[in-house]
Specification:
Pfam family, one: adh_short_C2
Subcellular location: Peroxisome
Largest sheet: 7 strands, parallel
CATH architecture: 3-Layer(aba) Sandwich
Number of strands: 7
Bound molecules: ligand L4XM7KOE, NADPH dihydro-nicotinamide-adenine-dinucleotide phosphate
Subunit structure: Interacts with PEX5, probably required to target it into peroxisomes.
Helix content: 40-55%
CATH superfamily: NAD(P)-binding Rossmann-like Domain
Pathway: Lipid metabolism
Strand order of the largest sheet: 3-2-1-4-5-6-7
CATH topology: Rossmann fold
GO biological process, one term: fatty acid biosynthetic process
Length: about 260
């Protein structure tokens, strides 16, 4: 979609870049010329994706990090700046989720998800934001949302609440950091094929098909469709777009709100 070379000379950090939607975002950014830096907990998964991006001619590196660990996030991002001289873009994609009734959710279960999604996005965004402000010249951040953050979902209250927080964080920082040339937006996908969400949340018999029936366009999203929206919002072509939430769900949530 974007012209080749749109991200030439740029460095983009993608959390959860070793699988699912994050992996596809990383591949798209690398194909457009960015050096992509992937964060995730499993070193083997990171190694595999980094090798495959390099084989395709891209520039990539992986760092094992749990985004809940503030010190580790700061250390890794400092190393990225040391190695490449800059960070221009951040994608807050790492997430955890599982279905559990709210009255049965343990404190630890709530914390596990909220700390990955909300705290993890905050750790990365504030650290990258401080770098961008100190360096000058601007940059951009895209965080991945979810439709339950907008309309609620009884079985994933932890995730919906944390993602609603990420949306509020995005709008708040878009106001605060606009004068530094830093833009922040959210992309909110509907159910996307070939991802952890499908295996984690829609594994029960009939669940995937039942969701499909409620989608006006008659299919689920594919990973490329989400990655293309993310690369657009990160790019200079979206230079006047900030604090926004782009919902890409085939019309699934129309009529709910
Ligand atoms: C308008 C509505 C339309 C709806 C249309 C739907 C649209 C699609 C929406 C899809 C949204 C998708 C969002 C996603 O984020 S999908 C991403 C899925 N990927 C992952 O989750 C991968 C990463 N996940 C994990 O690492 C783990 O699952 C976890 C989040 C749990 C974190 O791992 P960690 O090792 O840190 O945590 P623990 O295993 O130690 O567990 C911590 C506590 O959580 C409890 N727990 C874990 N799993 C469950 C479960 N399935 N049910 C209940 N409780 C669970 C665990 O027991 C621990 O608590 P306790 O110590 O109290 O036992
Ligand atoms: N797929 C879908 O249908 C939808 C997805 N979304 C959102 O899109 C994003 C991607 O989802 P999806 O592709 O399904 O996810 P996946 O489960 O496929 O991938 C999640 C990625 O996040 C990483 N990750 C998880 N926890 C942490 C952590 N604590 N620290 C660092 N990295 C972590 C995982 O790597 P590792 O395990 O090695 O740490 C993995 O690379 C998420 O934000 C999700 O909420 C929103 C709506 C729909």
């Amino acid at each position: 979609m974007l012209p080749p070379g749109s991200f030439e000379g740029r460095v983009a950090v993608i959390t959860g870049g070793s699988s699912g939607i994050g992996e596809t975002i990383a591949r798209h950014l690398a194909a457009l010329g960015a050096t992509v830096v992937l964060l995730g907990r499993r070193p083997d998964a990171l190694r595999e994706v980094v090798a495959s991006i390099r084989e395709a001619g891209g520039s990539a590196a992986g760092f094992a990090a749990d985004v809940r660990d503030r010190e580790r996030v700061e250390a890794v991002l400092a190393e990225v700046v040391d190695r490449y001289g800059r960070i221009d873009h951040l994608v807050n994609n790492a997430a955890g989720n599982f279905r559990v009734a709210p009255e049965e959710m343990s404190p630890n279960a709530w914390n596990a998800v909220v700390r990955i999604v909300l705290d993890g996005s905050w750790h990365c965004t504030q650290t990258v934001g401080r770098h961008l402000i100190a360096r000058g010249g601007g940059g951009s951040v895209v965080s991945i949302g979810t439709t339950p953050a907008l309309f609620g979902d009884p079985d994933t209250a932890h995730s919906a609440s944390a993602k609603a927080g990420v949306l509020a964080m995005t709008k708040s920082l878009a106001i605060a950091w606009g004068r530094h040339g830093i833009r922040l937006n959210v992309v909110t996908p509907g159910l996307t094929d070939d991802t952890g969400a499908v295996s984690q949340l829609f594994a029960a018999e009939g669940a995937y098909a039942a969701n499909l029936e409620k989608i006006p366009v008659g299919r689920h999203a594919n990973r490329d469709e989400i990655a293309e929206a993310v690369t657009y919002l990160l790019s200079d072509h979206a230079g006047y777009v900030t604090g926004q939430n782009l919902v890409i769900d085939g019309g699934r949530s129309l009529g709910i709100g």
